[in-house]
Structure formats: structure tokens, C-alpha cells
Amino acid sequence: MHPQLASDLARLSPLLELTRQRAAAFLDTLPDRPVVPPAPAPGPVPLPEHGAGLQAALEEFGARWEPALSAGAGPRYLGFVTGGATPAALAGDWLTAAADQNSNSSLDGAGQHLERETVDWLRELFGLSGRHRGTFVSGATMSNTVGLAIAREWLGERLGVSVAEDGAAALGRVRVLSGSAHSSVAKALSVLGLGRSALVAVPTLPGREAVDPAALAEALRAADGPCVVVANAGTVNTADFDDLRAIAALRERHDFWLHVDGAFGAFAALSPDHAHLVDGLDLADSVCIDLHKWLNVPYDSAVQFTRRQDLQSTVFRNAAAYLGPLGDDPDLVHLTPENSHRLRALAAWFTLRAYGRDGHREIVERCVAGAQALGRAIEDTEGLRLLAPVRLNVVCFGMDGDPSADRLARLAQELAGEVFFTPTVHAGVPALRAAFSNWRTTAEDVQRIVSALRGAARRY
């Protein structure tokens, strides 16, 4: 064994304690450290020929890289839709790395059985029936890709061909209809060989990002054959929701696969006051839900559900003598693009076991309350303008007068040490977007954000 490896192995316990101390110190400073540090990233250095061991690496990381990291896990990082890691999820993730399991095969321990138990808990959490089967993937983009890959095979089934065997060209032209599809949907269509041009934008309701069911019915009539509908349970800019039951009812007259992108909006199911937004989610043929958003587990973690796991295994089966057979309950290696993945279900298992449904309901409802409070404050602040109702956890706002992207960028830059917003464009107007999804965010954080925002708005 290399002498430095042997030395680190001999001192592993105290070295891990040093690592724990550094991690704890980082987490302790999250509430007050700059949300986006002003310091630039350090410049590159050459690969070391001779390593100095774990302790030296820890010290260099602390000196060069840690000061430049964002407080993305902290309470005032409202960019994108970014959760943190609950204490239990963090513990689960640490143990995931320690156990270092590849949970894709039944030949290797209980990893995939733990994943199945966790998927069952998540299915219950989101109100899905037993007809839905699920697997863990790396994020919403991969969840959408897997769901649309199954939809692609379903289209082949309808047309009497197997895309898995004959390729996407066997389908001819494909239509994927959606009102306000997330950018990852177009990316998935590119990856799957269906092409970005397969995505057809359907008119939305006036002043909304939700699809107009009547316009969707007309688009389905025009499609003249089986197609795919991507519905939204929470759009990026305004957290708007398609009427899932109304869309599913169109299957009585039209032949289509219904995929629901509920990356963060599916968590509305946890709140009695907002569960109506995802009424009909169980009617979907496939569902995307991102767990490193509102479940507050570390990156990268998401889940995908489908009613047609038979088609899923047709797409992703991996034939090799050292792998288990497909069967009625296929190993996870046959269900996603990955031939191997870490036991990412463990972090979700820990947080669900530690806090249960009621703990995660409280996180959702507190985040919604924070978004509503910020929305009210923006309406009451001179110079700022709320661009859409606060339906769930997203606040989309701009500026009065000259609402230019440059002006908003300067405002966001001044606020970056205190709060981070994502720049966007809504209905053709440059905007900023605040997404509440972190378990640490409190009413006090919201007041701190409001104070900083009002002060900056007066200067711009």
C-alpha cells in the first residue's frame, strides 16, 4: 500500500473527526455567511506528483476553496429551487459514502431493497397508488428523461414497433404537447433522439402558465395519432399548475401518454391547503419529482414513477451474464440509464424516518408562508412589482419604471451577500424569482430579506 494511504488508514478515525469539525463549522456559519461570496474562485494549480495526505488536503480546501463556496444550503439562498439537507438527510448521506453501496443489483446486499422501501414511502407521501412503481435517479432532468423514454416506447407499442430495438426513426414524426414545459423536457427530447422540435407549445390560460385544456384538446385533434402530453405541477416562474384531472379526461377521446413534471410542485400534496393543486397526479402515466428540492436531501437525488414499468425495463434492460434476470420485479440496473449508482435512497430514508409526514408537511407550509409574506412585502414596496400571484413557494417580481435586465442584475448583485434570487423572464418582462424550499428558512429570514430588498430597491 502507498505509504500515504497507509498512514491515512491508520489515522482514519481522527481524520474523520477533523472532517466532521470542518463540516460542522461550515454549517454553523450558514445563517450569517455571504449567500454568494464576493471572492472569486481560486486559480488552478497543477496536479501534485506527491500527495500530502488527507489532513493537508483538508487544510488546503479550507484555505483555497471553502471561502468561495456559496451558502446554497442556507436559509436565504432562494435561487433556482434549492433545498438544503435536513440533519437526518445529512447523516444518511455521510453513511451512504461510508457504506459505498452500488444498489442496482440484488446480487449485492440489501441496497436496492432499502431503495424500494423508500420509494414506497415516497409514493404514499405524494398520494400515488400502488400501480405506480418508482426508482431513484440523479435529478429532475434525468427523471423527465426516463419518463419520456418510457413514453417513447409506449408510442412504439401503439404503432407496432419497438423503439428500444429499432431506434427512434421507427416512430416517424413525434409530437410532445405542453403549455409551459421546463427546459429539461426539450433537453430530454434531444437526448432521446426525438428532437427538440417535437415539443409543441400549446396556448396557456390568459395571464397564466397553465395550459388551456380546450387548446390542448384542439392540439390533440390536430395531432391525428398517439402523442405525448407533458403537464406541469408547478411551473418554474410562477408555480402554476395544469388541471391534471381535466387533461387526463381528454384520454377518453384522444390517445396520449401523460407525463407530469412535478419536480417541486408535487410537494403541494403534503399541505391540506394546497393538495388540490395536484389533484389527479395519480392519473399520470409517468411522474417526475425532484428530492433535492423540497425533501431537503443532498444533491443529487430525484425519483421517477410510472405505471408501465414493463416498458421501462424494455428500454433500459442491460443484458450481461453477471446481472440478475428481468423477471416481474427487475433489478434496478434494468430501470434507468445508470448501470451503477450510489445508495442515494439512504438520505431520503433517513429524513422520512426521522421527521415523517408531519415534519415534511411543516417544512412545506413554512416555505409557503415565507413566499406569501415576501409577496405581500413586494406589493407594499415602492419601486417593486409582483408579476404573478404567489400560488405556492415561488415569488416572481420585477421593478417599476425601467424593468430592464441590467437594472435587475445590479439589484440582485447588490443583494447577493444577503439573499440570492434567480434572474428570469416572465411574459416577456425581465424578472427575479425567489423560490422557498429550504428547511432552515424562518420568518426572521424573510424579514431580513425584505429589509435588504427594500433598501436596495430605493437605490435603484
TrEMBL record:
SUPFAM superfamilies hit by this protein: PLP-dependent transferases
Pfam families tied to this protein: Pyridoxal_deC
Listed name of the protein: Pyridoxal-dependent decarboxylase
Keywords in alphabetical order: Decarboxylase, Lyase, Pyridoxal phosphate
Naturally occurring in which organism (per UniProt): Streptomyces orinoci
Transmembrane residue ranges: none
Keyword match NAD: no
Cofactors: pyridoxal 5'-phosphate
Protein family per UniProt: Belongs to the group II decarboxylase family.
Coiled coil: none
